[in-house]
Amino acid sequence: MSTHRKKKVKSWLKNAVERVREFAYTEPAAGEPPKSPRVGIALGGGFARGIAHLGVLSVLEKENIPVDYLAGTSAGAMLAIAYASGHPIHEIIAQARATRFKDFGNWRLSWMGLASNQKLEHYPRKYLGVTTFEELKIPLAIAATDLGKGEPVYFTSGPLGPALRASCAYPGMFVPVELDGRVLVDGFLAAPVPVDALRSMGADVVIAIFLEAANNRKPTSIVDVIGLSFAILQRHADLEWRRAADIIIEPVVKDFLWDDFEKTSELIAAGETAARAALPKILAALAPKIAPAPSVIVSKSK
Q: What is residue 128's DSSP assignment?
């Protein structure tokens, strides 16, 4: 081999060795950029007690905690629609202050219930300017219960009004809603806090908000009797949703009546207090998980 050829080969080998050493001894690259978990909020039912959800959502908003998905049952469905519509929370709170039973229900005794909630079909359009799920800013699932099968039914597309009305058809109080060949009642029977819907939608972290109704007070109306009876059943039920949630927020609202709409400030304060107490757990759950980068260990020659 000629001298020129030998020099060329040696130069190539030297460069190759330098590249291998550079690769072997360089610090491992950092892992992939932190990926923010997708957050889902499940709002349980509770008639006027549902206003406490606004206190929780207000705290999450102030702390810049994202809400990527929403799911709601009964009153939780109504407030989830309001928040997902994109209206500022102060506007939603103002609407809550003005809300009364007459805005969504009519006392109309029948063999199937004490009242009709027909007015709820028009609530999203009348008060929020939206009529379909597709118009919402945040993906939403609304839970109802199939009375025949005893199974949850989740609405995620199409008209909002019928889904909301079905989700709020409290058994014994409101007449059931017939929709797509099914007889539907309040979602709280099969999905008291609809966390499963959020998992199906793609949520990585699920925050559940539960509003307990039962206390030791004496019932004063048939609505109280129905509500307290269902609350007892829920307390003794196998609540799978608790095991499926990452964080559970439980505002203290037991002393509020089903129609305490005039106590909006107190209900919002209860939601804010509970959310503040849960913040450390929420922030810990949302801490980005950085995937470790693969490392190469090479023994240096002496």
A: I
